[in-house]
Amino acid sequence: MFQTIFANVRKACPLVHNITNYVTVNDCANMLLACGASPIMADDEEEVEEITALCAGLNINIGTLNRRTIASMLLAGKRANVLGHPVVLDPVGAGASKLRTETAERLLKEVKFTVIRGNISEIKTLAYGNGTTNGVDADVADRVTDENLPEMVAFAKAFAAKTGAVIAITGAIDIVADSSRAYCIRNGHPMMASITGTGCQLSAMTAAFVAANREQALEATAAAVAAMGYAGELAYERRSATDGNATYRNGIIDAIYNMTPETLEKGARYEVY
Amino acid sequence: MFQTIFANVRKACPLVHNITNYVTVNDCANMLLACGASPIMADDEEEVEEITALCAGLNINIGTLNRRTIASMLLAGKRANVLGHPVVLDPVGAGASKLRTETAERLLKEVKFTVIRGNISEIKTLAYGNGTTNGVDADVADRVTDENLPEMVAFAKAFAAKTGAVIAITGAIDIVADSSRAYCIRNGHPMMASITGTGCQLSAMTAAFVAANREQALEATAAAVAAMGYAGELAYERRSATDGNATYRNGIIDAIYNMTPETLEKGARYEVY
Amino acid sequence: MFQTIFANVRKACPLVHNITNYVTVNDCANMLLACGASPIMADDEEEVEEITALCAGLNINIGTLNRRTIASMLLAGKRANVLGHPVVLDPVGAGASKLRTETAERLLKEVKFTVIRGNISEIKTLAYGNGTTNGVDADVADRVTDENLPEMVAFAKAFAAKTGAVIAITGAIDIVADSSRAYCIRNGHPMMASITGTGCQLSAMTAAFVAANREQALEATAAAVAAMGYAGELAYERRSATDGNATYRNGIIDAIYNMTPETLEKGARYEVY
């Protein structure tokens, strides 16, 4: 099924509007191109509504938020809602500062999100109003493991029911859930933690996947998460002894560029609960 | 002739001031270094006039414009004009929003540009006050082809006559024109469309080329366009089976770094009308 | 000794708060990850104090400063001082504009820095209130050579005494000094000048090194400088004929990723005065 979903992205070439941080923005743009979509970045209040109207999907990432861009996120998100465009939220660092937590909460209140993708600490912060955090990384104590998986799946489904969004919690084991079903995805490689922006890139790609698969937000999100993890595996396999995290970063984007719907279908490893 | 032009860049090492978007800014900096120039990025109103005064050329790119940086673009552009420094405009996404279109128009009215470089949709927007657009990419209907080439060359020359700037329309076939002559450049590779920022990088490099070849803005722009396209060809040739767009992005910058005036002279493919 | 210092970074995995320019920010983040630290970027006044409180060190880089981020730098710097966190200043382009020079001076007056790292022109600007500069690059006339080394070492020690900070002047020969001792580091490769951001990356990495070696700021800074230079050598050795500055940029980050405390100890070349 991921095969059809990915083929739809390559066929539709969705234009995705990104209001995102300046740390990983170039990687997000190249990742969107790698998966077959087109990126546009625009964050000024005076143009975000118009830009989002041109696009097929919107990706809001609070990574280096400020007062000016927060206003733009709200404007663009509401406009995308009116137009019925899918909207993805990446609550980078929610829990790490009051500004991030409150902005994420305000976005959740004023904008209807199709997908919320974050690490477990960020998602817990959104669900419970507070959470532990380690900067922009998940707190170790929070991590999804095989032991706590049933509990985490229930948590993701409940938060999906509450928000009406597909919830994607990414980490060593990824959970992608709506209110009734959850994909637990086993793709990925630990080395992905050694580069900045794999989460941001995945959120951007998720916006493309849901934009090209409007009626299947759960499956489209699961396919994007599996594709990212599988790309991390492929890039690791191709790594030479002197390669480090910089080359690995390029390798992941390259792997998405060269991934086909068929290889994704074969490479994806997941269970559905 | 491109040989001499490129040799002048390597000899002069022009310092280029860039007010550009945060998506591709790092690539622009590394591309300037690759061609033998030096980059400086500064976008605050309080310093842009001073910074531009230190430099040999200015590159204005509206890719992620906002109110603050628009004011800086105007200040820097006017100051560069007073000093007689070459100024390049990259009207990224003109036509995609009122803010971008109006900002590009205002810049054209208040600043005298040496070169305007964009895709065909962006340039048509500037010339006609409106245009079709596909976000930051050219609309397919607009594309320059062998069939419409004479008409497009006439359009470019007419817009060059109107603005007093060299007009560079880049795409599968590139047109670089002043009011009386046009270079049609056949270098490039379709894979260049799969990475973000080749246009931005080219605009930055063009600023370096015209800064080092003050009396030959047309030829300098044509040489920069040919160099970029040729680099796209070379990077494609060197590509291995598992490389994708991320490695290709590095390959293009690498190819400019290793390009010599002689290899550019041999690799450039163009006609003059 | 550099061995123990680097091992401490890998053990402590310090979280480093960066208020830095948008040109090289991604490279700074990946370099921090490469050396074993974690990056967080946040530049809004409303959150910088909280973010810095979460972290083990702060890196302030004025590369693309503006009014908004200058206020954040001051807030974060003062907060880090109250908390006793190490703070690094990278005065990018001090001397190139009044805004940069005055901002650097104001930061020096209001914040106590653990380390100040810049090229010789930037450091002279801070020390003398003015200096020659070539944009963001050092002026040739200023460069540290074997001939002027004793004088430069004395200058660095005197400025260290005046500021209470470790002074790191990087270039072909690097000087890292406190008021009584100076490391002259001979690592590095001329090709490092062909990529943007090696200085910024080094400043970020230095913040991690001093954060993980709180009682040894001089040695930690010297170790970071040696590691960066040695990475430049290793990346150059691994370079193939068609590689250029883009691949070299990745190669340097990769070399830090793969560097061990032992290889750094063996590869570092320096004298102590």
TrEMBL record, chains A, B, C:
GO terms for molecular function: ATP binding; hydroxyethylthiazole kinase activity; magnesium ion binding. Its cofactor is Mg(2+). Keywords: ATP-binding, Kinase, Magnesium, Metal-binding, Nucleotide-binding, Thiamine biosynthesis, Transferase. Its EC number is 2.7.1.50. It is an enzyme of class 2 (transferase). It catalyses: 5-(2-hydroxyethyl)-4-methylthiazole + ATP = 4-methyl-5-(2-phosphooxyethyl)-thiazole + ADP + H(+). GO terms for biological process: thiamine biosynthetic process; thiamine diphosphate biosynthetic process. InterPro entries: Hyethyz_kinase, Ribokinase-like. It holds the Pfam family HK. ATP binds at R117, T170. Pathway: Cofactor biosynthesis; thiamine diphosphate biosynthesis; 4-methyl-5-(2-phosphoethyl)-thiazole from 5-(2-hydroxyethyl)-4-methylthiazole: step 1/1. Substrate binds at M41, G197. Catalyzes the phosphorylation of the hydroxyl group of 4-methyl-5-beta-hydroxyethylthiazole (THZ). Belongs to the Thz kinase family. This is Hydroxyethylthiazole kinase.
